[in-house]
UniProtKB/TrEMBL annotation:
Stored PANTHER family: THYMIDYLATE KINASE (PTHR10344:SF1)
UniProt name for this protein: Thymidylate kinase
Sorted UniProt keywords: ATP-binding, Kinase, Nucleotide biosynthesis, Nucleotide-binding, Transferase
Keyword Transcription part of the UniProt annotation: no
One Gene Ontology cellular component: cytosol
Superkingdom, taxonomy of origin: Eukaryota
GO terms, biological process: dTDP biosynthetic process; dTTP biosynthetic process; dUDP biosynthetic process
Organism: Candolleomyces aberdarensis
Enzyme Commission numbers on file: 2.7.4.9
Molecular function GO terms recorded: ATP binding; dTMP kinase activity; nucleoside diphosphate kinase activity
Pathway: Pyrimidine metabolism; dTTP biosynthesis
Residue ranges occupied by any Thymidylate kinase-like domain in the UniProt entry: 9-187
Pfam annotation, one family: Thymidylate_kin
Amino acid sequence: MTRAPFIVIEGLDRSGKTTQTSLLQARLEREGISTKLMKFPDRTTTIGQMIDSYLKSTSELDDHVIHLLFSANRWEMASTIETLLNEGTTIICDRYAFSGIAFSASKVTTTTTTPSSSSSTDATTVPKLPFEWCRAPDVGLPAPDLVLFLDISPEQARLRGGYGEERYEKEEMQARVRQAFKRLGDETRTSSPTGVAASGKQWLVVDAGRERDEVSAEMWSHVELLVKGTLTSPIGKLWNDKIL
């Protein structure tokens, strides 16, 4: 039994994900490959509308609550993802569980202390949500066959249009998110130059600071062999090794 591949596009805000995801979808369709584009959060569902309101800063939610809503929004589509893949439809996904972890684990509380021997104050930051707590709700979701991480510095991203319109688009936050993505990528990859992980999955970093067509061409070079090949392995599950 063969199936289609599941491809996820991740990256910082304003890294060009939406543009590149749309270009990739159009290229696949020109190649005659049945394709479905998904975006997370899916703001069309009831849960997605709550997330949309939060991201636009028109409502406030506890950090634990919004993280679980993001995860629930992905679980809403889990069975659909598996069905489409098994029916032969390639899925291109704009953000997935990796974003959920990276952004939630990057929220911090800042505390200030004044040493007794000094008149100045020291500031320290403490994560609001532990990394593994952020991962836990997504354990068991369908695992992508390929993750393309569009990497751009927060400084470059800030220069792009629309930056700062949503809650998380702050340079300090984006810098922490970038480090969290790096941790997730390091976990996924092996030392293999092709980026093939032990599970057969791939996490590949793409320099998103270049011209649009250069980025698009590199992404296609990674995707082409996967979508034109034959997948017979069952759909994987994210982080099943984390289940106790």
